[in-house]
Interleukin-22 receptor subunit alpha-2 (Tichodroma muraria), 214 residues
Amino acid sequence: VLENQDLQDSIKPQKVEFHSLNFNTTLHWQPGWAREARDALYFVQYKVYGQSTWQNKDECWGISSCVCDLTHETSDIQEPYYSRVRAALAGVYSNWSLSCRFTPWRETMIGPPMVTVVHSNKSITVKLQAPHSPYKRKRGSKIPMTNYYDLLYQVFIINNLLDEQHRVLVYEGKDKVIKIQDLRPGVSYCIVAKMYMPMLDHSSAYSSRQCTVL
């Protein structure tokens, strides 16, 4: 019995955490500390905070990987959720490892916008597109993150390629098309943008650079 108890403890999953980007939500964990824990199988359950019964996640029942997609199960974005994972090895089951409480609306990370740059001889036109959630409208198109939050676009210009960190904020607001005027011909300009959420004071990562020479 003692050996079983040791095995139970040593295969118990560690660091059970929700990761979420634009409401694409996955549960991640790490194997137990025993070397043989790498061969364990995992079982995932979830529930809304306050519910008494746990739901099995069928696609993550007896899996060998340490990640489970719970996007569909956490689609009520204002609700707080919990998840838990247990491991099994050689007929021995670990105790459950519990995640922290996760509320998608508060905790999902917002991704950067898509940026397209069109230049004329003295100006750059920047076209911005907010990231999309995984959730769909009745017609089938994915709902943009701007439907869920009051989001602003922040557009930065990098006009000194030696100093990547020297980004100048040239626009903040909701317009999807902006024009940056009075630029110098023959100079290389790069544009990066991010989404900003004033209410929670969150920012996305920067978009990838879009560069152009006037």
Summary: Residues 1-106 form a domain with the Immunoglobulin-like fold (CATH 2.60.40.10). The longest helix spans residues 2-11. The chain has a mean pLDDT of 92. The helical segments are 2-11, 104-107.
